[in-house]
Amino acid sequence: MAPIKLAIIGSGPSAFYVASRLLSLLPSTSPQASRLKIHMYDRLWAPHGLVRYGVAPDHPEVKNCTHKFDSAAEDPRLRFFGNINIGTPSVIPHTLPLSLSTLMSHYTHLLFSTGCTVPILHSALPPSTYCVPALSLVHWYTQHPSSPPPPPLERLSHITLIGQGNVSLDIARMLLTPSSELAKYDVPAPVLAVLERSAIQHVSIVGRRGPRQAAFTTKELREMMNLSDASLVPLDPALLKAPADGAESLTRQQSRVLQLLQKGSRNKPGTTRKTWSLDFFRSPTGLILPDPSLSQQATLTLAHTTLDSSSRAVSTGETSTLSTSLVVTSLGHRADPSAAWYDPALGHLRTVGGRVIDAAGRTMRNVYASGWAATGARGVLASTMMDAYAVADVILRDAFPGEDIQTVPVVGVDSIDEKALAEDVLPKEVDVDSIPPEVEAGLRDGRVTDYEGWRAINAEEVRRGEAMGKERERMGWQEVEAFLQSRDNSLTLSYWEYAAGLFDLIK
Amino acid sequence: MSSILKARSALAIVRCDVIMRQRRVLLCHGELSGSPRLQMRPLHFGYTSNAFHSSAVASHGSITRPEPGTGIKLHFKDSKGSPLKTVEVNEGDDILSIAHEHDIDLEGACEGSVACSTCHVILSPEHYDLLPEPEDDENDMLDMAFGLTDTSRLGCQVKITRELDEMSVTLPSATRNMFVDGKKPTHH
C-alpha cells in the first residue's frame, strides 16, 4: 500500500475531526496502520483554531470537543507543529515562514483546513478608529497572537454592531455582562480589566433585513434576553407578526426566535443600567467621523429597507442617523485571498466533494480542503464534524479505489476521473517520517511548538487560572517561549543528573 | 569528594526515578507523549482489527452493562433504518453514554453539556411521546440539528426508563447537500 503521509494546514476542529477519523478508520492494530502519518501545521503556536480563538469565553462547554482532539494527538502517527505560517503573508510577527512548495515536497497528501480568517468589510464603512471588524474584538478577548489593541471601552458609551449573527451577539453579550460574572471564565486578566472600566450604556445590533432573516440562533438570543443587567428596547410589534396565511411558513428556528422576541427580555426596559436593541431593516450608508475636539461620537447614516419578492433587502428611500462611539462590522468571513486555489467568486477554496479543483476545473490529485476553507464561513461544530468525516471518507476512497468506504452517508461524490486531473503537485513517494528541515530547526530552537509542549502549556494555563478562581489564565508567546525553555532545561538537567548518577554507580 | 558525589548522584537517581515513575504513570493515562530528547513512546487505546472500522470515541465506560436478559432493550438503527445493534441497558443511562459503551457511531462533541447537536437521534414515536418535553436549552440545540424530525432528541438528554423497553434509536442522515456550496442557509 502506498503511504498516506498527510500534511494538514490548520489545527482547528475541522483538521482534528479529519485526522481523528482517518486514525480511527485505520486503527493502529490494522496492517495498513503504519503507512498513515499525519502532520498538522498551524500558524498559531496553540492548536485548536476557533475553539480557542473564536468560541466566546462564557461558552466553555463547547470547548469540551478538545478532549477528543487530545485523544487523537496521543496516536504517535499524528504530530503537531505550531507557530509556522505556510504560504500566505503572516499576520503574526513571530511565526516561522514555510513555503507551500517546500511543505508539499515532503508529503503525499495535503489537506487545507485553514478556515475563513479574513473579515468581510462593508463598502460604506471603511476601517478607522471609529469602525473596526468584529474579528479584532474577538481576537482581543481571546488574546489571539495577532495581538489587536483593546477597544477604548472606558471612553465609549454606545456601540453599534452591523450584522445580526452569533458573532454580533457574542460581542454584545461580552460587553453587557457584568465583568464580575465573566471573571470565572477564560477571560484573560488584561481583558477583564478593560471590561471592568467599560462605560458602554447601549449596544445597537443593526441588520438590513427582519427577524425571520436574522442569522443568530435561539440559544444566543435567549442568553441576550436573560442578561442580568441589560434590557431589550421593545420591538415594533409589526415586525413580530406571524406571516399571513399562504405566505411561506416558518422554520422551527424562525418560530422560536419570533416567540423569544415577542416575549421580550427578562428585565423590562427602564429597570436596568444598560440596554440593547435590534435595529431591523436598517442598512449603513456611511459613517461621519467627528471632530475630536468637539465630540467623541460619530454619526452612522442608515438607509431604511424592506424585502423584495426574493426576500432581498431594498431601500425604501427613508433614512435616519445614529450617534455612536464605535461601529463594529460583523458580516462574516472569507478565506485568505492569497491562498492557493482560492476562488474570489466563492470567497473560499474551490472544491468538489472535498477535492481541490484548479481554475480550469481539473482535480488536484491528493489535495483536499475541509471545513470553512472549503464551504465558506457557515455552520456550527456539528456541521464541521460531518463535513470533516465526509472528507476523510473521500481521502480513503481515493487512496483505496477497490474498497467501498462509506462511513458517512453522503451521495454525489464519484471516483476521480483520471482524465480530469491536473499535473501532480505532490510526490508519490516520500520518507514517511521526515519533516522539512526548517521545522526540524524550529523545534530545536524553541520557535516551533509541538503537542507535548501544548499539553504542558495547557496544564500551566489551567494551574494559573485555578490560583485565580477561573477556568484558565492565558499565556502570551513570550511567556510560552520562556516556560517551554525552562521546562526543557529542567528536563535536560534531570536527564544529565540521572546519567551522571548512573555513570557514578558504574565506576 | 566521592562520597559527596555519591550522595548527590543517589539523590539524582531517586529524584529521576520519581520523575520517570511519574512520567510512566502519566503515560498510562495517555497524557504525556514524551519529550523528543527522552524519546518515550506513549501508550494508547487499543482498537479492533477490522480494516475500516468506524469506532466511536474510545471511552472507559462510565456505565455498566446489566446481566443479559435483565436490562432494558434498545434497538439502534442506521440512517436508512437498518438494524445496527440491539443492546441492553440500565435504567437512568443516557443514550449517548450507551452508544459509546457499545461502540455505536454517535458523537458527543460537547460531552453531554447541551452545547452542540452532534448526539441528535430519532426515536420511535410511541416512545418519544413517553418522554418529558425537552427543556429550552435542548430545543435550542435541536433547532440546528441535521435532518430534524418530530421525534428527534439529543441523545445525551434522554435517560432510559423501563417504559422505553424496545425503543428504536435511529441515527440521523447527514445532509445530502454536504458538498454543495451556499445553498443551505446555516448558522455560525
TrEMBL record, chain A:
Gene3D superfamilies in alphabetical order: FAD/NAD(P)-binding domain, NAD(P)-binding Rossmann-like Domain
Keyword Cytoplasm: no
Enzyme's top EC category: oxidoreductase
GO cellular component: mitochondrion
Catalytic activity field: 2 reduced [adrenodoxin] + NADP(+) + H(+) = 2 oxidized [adrenodoxin] + NADPH
Primary localization: mitochondrion
Binding site for FAD: 14, 50, 86, 372
Keyword terms, alphabetized: FAD, Flavoprotein, Mitochondrion, NADP, Oxidoreductase
EC number: 1.18.1.6
Localization annotation: Mitochondrion
Cofactor dependence: FAD
PANTHER family for the chain: GLUTAMATE SYNTHASE 1 [NADH], CHLOROPLASTIC-LIKE (PTHR48467)
UniProt-recorded name of the protein: NADPH:adrenodoxin oxidoreductase, mitochondrial
Organism of provenance: Fibroporia radiculosa
Lineage: Eukaryota, Fungi, Dikarya, Basidiomycota, Agaricomycotina
Automatic annotation (TrEMBL), chain B:
Assigned keywords, A-Z: 2Fe-2S, Iron, Iron-sulfur, Metal-binding
Transmembrane annotation, as ranges: none
Pfam families recorded: Fer2 (PF00111)
Recorded coiled-coil stretches: none
One annotated GO biological process: P450-containing electron transport chain
Domain of life: Eukaryota
GO cellular component: mitochondrion
Keyword Oxidoreductase assigned: no
GO molecular-function term, one example from the UniProt record: 2 iron, 2 sulfur cluster binding
Similarity field: Belongs to the adrenodoxin/putidaredoxin family.
The name this protein goes by in its record: 2Fe-2S ferredoxin-type domain-containing protein
Record organism: Fibroporia radiculosa
